[in-house]
Amino acid sequence: MRMRTDKRRTMTILAAALLVSVSCTSTNRTAEADLVAHQAIYRLELSEKSPPSRFNGVSGAAVSVIERTCQGWTINEQVVMTMLTNAGGAIDREMIFKAQESADGTYFKFDSKSVTNGNREAFKGSARRSVGDQVEAEFIQPTPREMPLPDGTKFYMGMTHWLVELAKSGQRTGETFAFDGTDDEGPNKVTAFILPSKAVPDVKGDPALLRGPAWTVRLAFFKTGDATAAPEPEFEIQLRLLSNGIVTRFELIFDDLIVDQILEDVLPAKDERCS
Length: 275
Fold this sequence. Notes:
Elements: H1 7-19, H2 29-32, E1 38-46, E2 55-68, E3 72-85, E4 90-102, E5 107-116, E6 119-129, E7 135-141, E8 145-149, H3 156-168, E9 173-178, E10 188-194, E11 214-223, E12 235-242, E13 247-253, E14 258-268
Antiparallel strand pairs: 1-2, 1-14, 2-3, 3-4, 4-5, 5-6, 6-7, 7-8, 9-10, 10-11, 11-12, 12-13, 13-14
């Protein structure tokens, strides 16, 4: 099932793409050693696979800056996208996302803002993992509320670490729950399908950051907590994942178009290694 190009769903799929575009943390520092802090720049364009629809063009860019500190990780990201219609109109969308995640994966703080043709949305809050892997989120914007999350829910950084470890182990499928705070609809159940490792494609960026094996990963995102929800995924993303957590290419699948998000450049970012 492809995602609709309404405002909320578009921002959700863009956020989900960035969710897995970064180096990630886990509950132990040994696992972090293979993953890198970095700054990645992507361009967005209409895919050649895109079906005929009311859209005839896409342009935009995404910037992701992931830094490691002694306390954990900081994330600063921005996505700007314009979709051109056959009628001569345009849909302009922008998302700014900031977050912090503790090194042990027990605390996550998020601040997400988006604008679509002048219409604004904002989500702000935090989430904590307690003893026994129980997880709860607390929103302070747009409306104060608490939200229980499924046990074992992965925050922003833990998602890609899970994917890398799954791929390294040789497994081809896996399921988990993910939460990043980019909307107030709750976590997604995520099913991953991983194809065998392939050579890293020829892309721009620091060669030291583009070494190692790579996998093609297909992610299906499902609603949780809704007994009436359809069994089909809300949306899907296909990506090219390196073993250090960097993603070189995304395929963002909507109902009436497919958008390619392609790595333009990747550079080292602040990376504090503390005892």
